[in-house]
């Protein structure tokens, strides 16, 4: 089972640090045993019983994994993707319009300052005990950082590119699609990366209350039943999901921003 | 088609902060002529070129391309900018950069494809359409920028100090490239430079500008034989004389004296 | 506690996963490392002055016995010095207990028995309060909408019931109530909501029913009660609602102090239950739980008794076993020290 941890760490690109932490975990828990903090080896053994199966047709995942993680990730995907669409669109409007940005910037900054957990009771009031409540919280928690970064990126597009585009008499639509968005992409991607992390945390936090299914719910159930090994197994699963999503994002980012990396190299 | 600049002035800012960049500039670039605009820095030569390109609004005066007044980037006019790394789009391949230039022209697909390949061949970069600009040297990137200008088969091409950032050898190659595509595409060219040799070598006419405020000082006809040649032309005593005259105008605008 | 700090930590980091692990390690590491630092919170017995006991509190009005004993100097009288430590919940209290930060945790018997069955050695030192035996004294309710088609436990099959915490005492008691009333709890879903959301979630139709304090079942909100699940689950007996637990080790090393603690509570309860002290008891409770004293007077109270009812605990262990929460609940003798004063 250590192989799963190692493979995941390699993907993350921070292998040695993760490995060191995992080793420290094992050693610490062996020297000072506590039911609250079981050794890594015990957690990983439980991890495989809880989340994995011998069934190749389900990619070796357990029913519990597919049901709980599937629900959580579905909520995450809906909330985050909605935030990406809305955030990039609004960010572009804000970034290109000085009037709009003067009007809305204070609003955006206010909402980024509201701790998202405070919105949970409100979300429950609006959406009730449904997945829409979780989707809403993930959306609301991630959209602002996407808006701000997109707006900054769009506002900061090199004037030369815009002049060049203007001399080509590009239509407004082509200008945005082919010049403004790609030129702002480094900042947009920064916003998306940050929002990805926030979204995953909110996925868990929004499931600590007012839901009957999901990884966050599983963590609560395990904690309240004093099944700390289960709780840690869920933490490890959330961590792995984070590593995988982050790695996928890095691959996409590298592909999308290939031009930026290389041009900065050639400047040397 | 003639490109006519009629009494153009451009002032940046207002009131006490107002700064006159160009005042009362008039010139005509005749069809298929190559006119160099040369002058010290701050003489407003780039400002004038941007106004000619329709990228900058003049404070007064008018620019016309043939019969049509220029009040925005006109059809059939291409611009080659000084900083190729910031005018080509690095997120697009060379081919995509070229097709993007023709996007507003709605050409048939096959036609567009031919033009792209022809433009690349003309600038000496056949079969490099799949590269990205950042995979190329500076000189090659500026060739791509010229090819991008040629794709729309322009009647007028405006070039703003296009070779300021490349080495001397590459520069000479690119100068000859400009003369070649002028003939090949039968295009009218206005060429801004601060390099006097380059201005004289390329041009049918040199427009000398002076600073403070930016204005046109003098127009000098360059009657050197064609085709021009980097060695032969520059050995011509007439080249030396014209060069000296332009040099005097640029460096010491007060002490002008006409030669020839 | 994790929830507030983690997003900020991740915002800075590149690899979320690594940080979740790292953060988790840190949280756990800090919790357990207090083992060394916090172990001295209790001085060795017999070193002179009164033994100091750190006790968790949730700040509930129901914790009046401790407030009273403290205010009246009853702890000092019985040779202990009590310091209350604010806690966020029963499980957090047990965790602090394990780490040695505190000496007594305020929790419920179910959590205690489940924790013991998972290998956490705990001992029940004193009860805080019990549950009513008669519907006329109901302190809790299964709240449903007044015009709801749900008239009985049976109607709740396949529905969602709100409770304040998942797997907590209220969920277990509500499940027991469903069984007693002839409903099959297997298809019933429980959802956790903050206490103050439980009633309104039912009123607005977001959930079919809530297990909630009796006073929140306000007819003006369009709510009614299907009865107090604690009365039904008790089957005529007063169950143990909450109390104070310590580690098995401290139950031995600090026996004298633990005995003194329970004795002080027993004396406090006698005074609280004296009708002559009614006014003072509500005033004191109101001060400590920051409630309006008139509101408190209007609310029915759970019976206060610090003696440990072994029979009630046995009955509750059976409930856990019946529901399959734990297969083999601990025997009451094994987690209530012999020196603890018992009833029943």
Describe this protein's structure.
The complex is a heterotrimer of chains A (268), B (260) and C (344). Chain A has helices spanning 2-12, 15-31, 40-51, 63-96, 98-113, 120-127, 131-155, 159-167, 172-205, 215-224, 228-256, 258-267. Chain A is an all-alpha fold and 268 residues long. Chain B is of the alpha/beta class and 260 residues long. In chain B, strand 4 (60-65) and strand 5 (68-69) form a beta hairpin. The mean pLDDT of chain B is 91. By secondary structure, chain C is an alpha/beta fold. In chain C, strand 6, helix 7 and strand 7 (189-192) form a beta-alpha-beta unit. Chains in contact: A-B, A-C. The interface between A and C is large, with 60 and 53 residues.
Give structural attributes:
heterotrimer, B: 260 residues, alpha/beta, six-stranded mixed beta sheet, four-stranded antiparallel beta sheet, 9 helices, globular, C: 344 residues, D-Maltodextrin-Binding Protein, domain 2, 2 domains, five-stranded mixed beta sheet, three-stranded antiparallel beta sheet, 15 helices, disordered N terminus
Largest interface: A-C, 60 and 53 residues
| Measured distance between first and last alpha carbons of chain A | 44 Å
SSE arrangement of chain B, N to C? EEEHEEEHHHHEHEHEEHH
* Sheet/helix structural class of chain A: mainly alpha
Biggest pleated-sheet summary of chain A: none
Layout of strands and helices, then pairs:
The complex is a heterotrimer of chains A (268), B (260) and C (344).
Chain A: H1 2-12, H2 15-31, H3 40-51, H4 63-96, H5 98-113, H6 120-127, H7 131-155, H8 159-167, H9 172-205, H10 215-224, H11 228-256, H12 258-267
Helix pairs in contact in A: 1-2, 1-11, 3-11, 4-5, 4-7, 4-9, 5-7, 6-7, 7-9, 8-9, 9-11, 10-11
Chain B: E1 3-12, E2 19-29, E3 34-38, H1 45-52, E4 60-65, E5 68-69, E6 77-80, H2 84-87, H3 94-101, H4 109-122, H5 138-150, E7 156-160, H6 168-185, E8 188-193, H7 196-202, E9 205-210, E10 215-221, H8 232-235, H9 237-251
Parallel strand pairs in B: 3-8, 3-9, 6-7, 7-8
Antiparallel strand pairs in B: 1-2, 1-4, 4-5, 9-10
Helix pairs in contact in B: 3-5, 4-5, 5-6, 7-9
Chain C: H1 2-12, H2 16-38, E1 51-57, H3 64-71, H4 74-77, E2 80-86, H5 90-99, E3 105-107, H6 109-117, E4 122-130, E5 140-145, E6 160-163, H7 169-180, E7 189-192, H8 195-203, E8 209-213, E9 223-225, H9 229-234, E10 240-247, H10 248-253, H11 255-272, H12 278-289, H13 293-298, E11 308-309, H14 310-322, H15 332-335, E12 342-343
Parallel strand pairs in C: 1-2, 6-7, 6-8, 11-12
Antiparallel strand pairs in C: 3-10, 4-10, 5-8, 5-9
Helix pairs in contact in C: 1-2, 2-5, 3-11, 3-12, 6-14
């Amino acid at each position: 089972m250590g192989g799963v941890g190692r493979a995941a760490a390699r993907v993350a690109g921070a292998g040695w640090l993760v490995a060191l932490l995992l080793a420290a975990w094992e050693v610490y828990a062996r020297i000072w045993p506590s039911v609250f903090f079981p050794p890594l080896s015990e957690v990983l053994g439980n991890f495989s019983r809880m989340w994995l199966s011998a069934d190749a047709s389900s990619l070796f995942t357990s029913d519990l994994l597919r049901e709980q993680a599937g629900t959580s990730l579905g909520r995450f995907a809906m909330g985050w993707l909605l935030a990406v669409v809305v955030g990039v669109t609004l960010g572009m409007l804000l970034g290109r319009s000085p009037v709009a940005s003067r009007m809305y910037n204070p609003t955006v900054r206010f909402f980024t300052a509201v701790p998202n957990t405070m919105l949970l009771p409100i979300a429950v009031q609006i959406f009730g005990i449904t997945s829409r409540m979780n989707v809403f919280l993930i959306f609301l928690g991630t959209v602002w950082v996407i808006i701000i970064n997109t707006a900054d990126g769009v506002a900061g597009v090199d004037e030369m590119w815009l002049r060049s585009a203007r001399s080509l008499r590009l239509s407004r639509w082509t200008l945005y699609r082919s010049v403004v968005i790609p030129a702002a992409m480094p900042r947009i991607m920064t916003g998306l990366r940050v929002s990805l992390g926030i979204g995953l945390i909110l996925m868990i936090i929004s499931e600590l209350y007012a839901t009957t299914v999901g990884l966050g719910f599983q963590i609560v159930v395990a904690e309240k039943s004093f099944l700390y090994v289960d709780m840690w197994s869920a933490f490890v699963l959330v961590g792995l999901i984070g590593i995988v999503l982050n790695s996928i994002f890095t691959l996409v980012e590298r592909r999308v921003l290939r031009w930026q990396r290389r041009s900065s190299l050639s400047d040397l | 088609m003639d490109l006519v600049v009629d009494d153009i002035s451009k002032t940046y800012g207002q009131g006490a902060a107002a700064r006159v960049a160009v005042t009362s500039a008039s010139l005509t670039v005749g069809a298929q002529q190559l006119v160099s605009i040369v002058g010290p820095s701050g003489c407003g030569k780039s400002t004038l070129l941007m106004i000619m390109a329709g990228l900058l609004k003049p404070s007064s005066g008018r620019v016309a391309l043939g019969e049509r007044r220029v009040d925005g980037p006109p059809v059939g006019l291409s611009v080659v900018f000084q900083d190729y790394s910031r005018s080509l789009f690095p997120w697009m391949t060379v081919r995509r950069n070229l097709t993007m230039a023709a996007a507003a022209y709605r050409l048939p697909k096959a036609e567009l494809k031919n033009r792209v390949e022809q433009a690349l061949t003309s600038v000496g970069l056949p079969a490099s359409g799949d590269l990205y600009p950042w995979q190329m040297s500076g000189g090659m990137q500026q060739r791509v920028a010229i090819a991008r200008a040629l794709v729309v088969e322009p009647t007028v091409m405006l070039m703003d100090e296009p070779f300021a950032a490349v080495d001397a050898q590459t520069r000479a190659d690119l100068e000859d490239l400009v003369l070649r595509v002028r003939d090949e595409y039968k295009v009218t060219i206005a060429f801004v430079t601060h390099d006097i040799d380059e201005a004289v070598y390329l041009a049918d006419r040199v427009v000398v500008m002076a600073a403070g405020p930016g204005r046109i000082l003098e127009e000098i006809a360059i009657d050197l034989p064609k085709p021009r040649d980097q060695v032969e032309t520059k050995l011509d005593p007439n080249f030396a004389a014209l060069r000296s005259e332009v040099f005097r105008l640029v460096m010491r605008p007060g002490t002008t004296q006409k030669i020839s | 506690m994790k929830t507030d700090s983690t997003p900020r930590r991740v915002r800075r980091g590149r690899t979320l996963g690594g940080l979740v692990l790292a953060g988790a390690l840190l949280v756990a590491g800090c919790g357990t490392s207090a083992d060394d630092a916090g172990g001295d919170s209790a001085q060795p017995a017999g070193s002179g002055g009164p033994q100091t006991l750190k006790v968790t509190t949730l700040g509930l009005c129901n914790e009046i016995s401790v407030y009273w004993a403290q205010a009246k100097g009853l702890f000092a009288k019985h040779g202990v010095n009590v310091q209350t430590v604010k806690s966020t919940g029963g499980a957090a209290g047990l965790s602090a207990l394990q780490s040695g930060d505190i000496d007594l945790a305020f929790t419920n018997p179910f959590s205690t028995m489940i924790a013991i069955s998972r290998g956490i050695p705990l001992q029940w030192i004193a009860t805080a309060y019990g549950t009513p035996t008669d519907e006329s004294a109901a302190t809790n309710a299964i709240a449903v909408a007044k015009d709801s088609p749900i008239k009985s436990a049976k109607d709740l099959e396949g529905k969602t019931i709100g409770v304040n915490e998942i797997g907590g005492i209220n969920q277990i008691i509500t499940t027991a109530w469903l069984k007693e009333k002839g409903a099959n709890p297997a298809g019933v879903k429980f959802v956790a909501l903050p206490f103050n959301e439980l009633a309104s979630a039912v009123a607005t139709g977001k959930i079919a029913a809530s297990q909630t304090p009796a006073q929140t079942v306000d007819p003006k909100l369009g709510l009614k009660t299907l009865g107090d699940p604690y009365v039904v689950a008790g089957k005529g007996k007063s169950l143990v609602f909450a109390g104070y637990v310590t580690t098995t080790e401290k139950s031995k090393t600090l026996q004298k102090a633990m005995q003194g603690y329970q004795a002080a509570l027993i004396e406090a309860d006698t005074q609280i239950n004296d009708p002559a002290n009614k006014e003072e008891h509500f005033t004191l409770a109101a001060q400590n739980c920051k409630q309006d004293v008139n509101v408190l007077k209007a609310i029915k109270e759970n019976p206060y008794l610090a003696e440990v009812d072994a029979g009630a605990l046995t009955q509750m262990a059976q409930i856990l076993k019946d529901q399959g929460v734990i297969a083999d609940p601990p025997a009451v003798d094994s987690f209530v020290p012999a020196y603890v004063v018992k009833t029943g």
